[in-house]
Amino acid sequence: MVKHVILWTLKDEFSEEEKLGIKQGIKEGLEGLKGKVPGIVDIKVNINGLASSNADLMLDSTFENEDALKAYAVHPNHVAVADSKVRPYTKIRSCLDYEI
User: Domain Stress-response A/B barrel spans what residues (predicted)?
Assistant: First the structure.
């Protein structure tokens, strides 16, 4: 199996209230991909980081294998969520993929 972990930082231009709504939209959009994108074993988005965090939210996902992760990256449902709910609002993206 393969873990796919992403940390995002939202753009500074958003108020704290706007950021809450953006984070909820990202969470709902990405978690909603389970069962729609083949190869996803588990997918969770944490939007409740502690004040000591230097990122706003985290994707913690597990895929059957590396090929499933590659297919997820270009799957139309994933691309639609990324283009509408993630990319317009984030300024920093850090990713770590690894085998478990």
Answer: 2-98
